[in-house]
Amino acid sequence: GDIIQVEGLRYRNPGEPPVRWGGKSLAFKNFDGMRIPSEVEVYWHPDEGYQPYFRCTITDLAFDTPELYE
Description:
Strand content: over 45%
Oligomer: single chain
Helix content: under 10%
Number of helices: 0
């Protein structure tokens, strides 16, 4: 199956206890036969609530190719 979400504790600020942190796969796409997350979101989730801080969409992917990617 697809990995939809990962979460753990991570230190956010010096001297403070660790905070829930994680990432979500929002969509998947096949690139040359390899299925990977194509939209992801990374977030902090302290007691105050969910705080997304990074989102990206992968539109093209090259891997293990001997040629220069253009």
